[in-house]
Write a structure and sequence with these properties.
The protein has about 200 residues and is of the alpha/beta class. Helix content is about 40%, strand content about 15%. It is globular, with a radius of gyration of 16 Å. Bound molecules: flavin mononucleotide. The site of flavin mononucleotide has 19 residues, from α1. Flavin mononucleotide (FMN) binds next to α1.
């Protein structure tokens, strides 16, 4: 039997920060459950912001040629996505947002080029979202969760689970919370089982 495929995206500019540590744990869990996980570090890639030129109106293909196409194809060929981003000004990091905006080309393909009726939108895949913020406000993750839900919709993806942790600021803060790391590991394990069907 083929291993279920997951793409894991590091959306923080900080390589060994809190979201990266949590994401690594989720990946470890998923691999321990037999998934094939491919890791992508956004800060190592060249991905332009969306330039709103709507070259994608031609055939639903983004006209800007850079590392976006590579990431898009990997995501679309996987059954699952792990996406990790810190809270930056109450939304996702710029690296994460640039990737998200480039998927407007897929939105255009689905709804304007292929004219798929909205009611036929089915979420055939699953996504796990991981985030942390320095503060502890009740609404800390509200803005980003709305963006993530709509982003996942474009990918035909259900938000399977969101792991959200407050009051983590310095790089190693998450290490003071082994319970968060354990939760991320278990989520990774369960996720891999969930996409194995
Ligand atoms: C540009 C920038 C904006 C930030 N904005 C917020 C914010 O709006 N709310 C908050 O609670 N923390 C904010 N933070 C703090 C980060 O969310 C926090 O340091 C987090 O632990 C970083 O995660 P990482 O280690 O995975 O990069 C911000 C940090 C930076 C660098």
């Amino acid at each position: 039997m083929q291993k279920p495929k997951i793409v894991a995206i590091y959306g923080s500019p900080r390589r060994k920060g809190n979201t990266a540590t949590l994401l690594k744990k989720a990946i470890e869990g998923a691999r321990d459950s037999g998934a094939d996980v491919e890791e992508i570090v956004l800060r190592d890639l060249k991905i332009s912001p969306c330039l709103e030129i709507y070259g994608c109106l031609q055939a639903g293909e983004c006209a800007i040629k850079d590392d976006f196409q590579l990431v898009r194809d990997k995501i679309l060929n996987a059954q699952g996505l792990f996406l990790a981003s810190p809270v930056f000004f109450y939304t996702v990091s710029a690296h994460t947002k640039m990737l998200m905006d480039r998927f407007q080309s897929l939105w255009v393909k689905k709804y304007w080029v292929d004219k798929i009726p909205r009611e036929q939108q089915t979420n055939t895949r699953k996504g796990l979202f991981i985030s942390v913020g320095a503060t502890k406000g009740k609404k800390l993750f509200d803005g980003m969760l709305l963006s993530i839900r709509y982003f996942f919709d474009v990918l035909d993806m259900e938000l399977w689970k969101a792991l959200l942790y407050r009051e983590l600021d310095f790089q190693d803060d998450v290490l003071k919370h082994p319970e968060y790391l354990e939760e991320a590991y278990l989520a990774g394990k369960q996720f891999a089982r969930a996409i194995s069907g």
